[in-house]
Amino acid sequence: MSDKAFEIQAVYELQCSINGEDHNIATSPTRKLLSILRDELAMTGTKRSCDIGRCGACMVMVDGKAMNACLTMAYQCSGKHITTIEGVSANGIDPIQQAFLEEGGFQCGYCTPGMIISVKALLDENPNPNQDEIEEALSGNICRCTGYGGIWRAVERAIEGRRLAT
C-alpha cells in the first residue's frame, strides 16, 4: 500500500545521497522513504511488507544506522546519506551477501535485504560483536522461512571474513 493517500499536498525538496548518488526529489514531507525508494527511484530491493516497522524487510541505513524505511518520513532524510541493498552491492557482491549465500541464510529471500542491511550496520559500527549484540541488531528483522540457523551462521561467517580481510 502506498502512502499517497495520507500525503500533505505541500511540496518538499528532499536533498539527500542515496547509495553515493546525490538526489533532489520534489515530494510531500509526509511521504515515507520506502515509497520514494520503490515508487520514484525504482529501488525495489528494499521490500514493503508490514508497513508498521515490525518485520525489517524495508531496512536501510541512514547515516550508517539501520532504520525502517516504512517509518522514515521524507523530511527526516534531508542532508542524510542513505544506503539501500542496491548500494551494498554497488561494487560487486559484498562479503556479507556472500556469507548469506554460502550459509543458506535465506530461503524465499524476502527478508534478506533487510537482514543484510542490519548486519552491515552492525559490523560497520562493531566489527567483532558478541552473540547478544548480534541478536539485538537483528531483533527488528523477522524471517518466516529459514528458522534463523543459516542467518546466524552467515553473520558469524561475515564477521570472520571481515576479520581475515583486515
List the quaternary state of the chains. single chain
Q: How much helix, percentage-wise, in residues?
A: 25-40%
- Count of alpha and pi helical runs: 6
Rough outline: globular
Strand line-up across the major sheet: 2-1-5-3-4
SSE succession:
EEHEEEHHHHH
Describe this structure in a few short sentences.
This protein has 166 residues and is α+β, with helices and mostly antiparallel strands. The chain is built from six helices and five strands; from the N terminus they run ββαβββααααα.
Q: What are the SSEs and their pairings?
A:
Elements: E1 12-18, E2 21-27, H1 33-40, E3 59-62, E4 65-68, E5 81-83, H2 85-88, H3 95-103, H4 112-125, H5 131-137, H6 149-165
Parallel strand pairs: 1-5
Antiparallel strand pairs: 1-2, 3-4, 3-5
Helix pairs in contact: 3-6
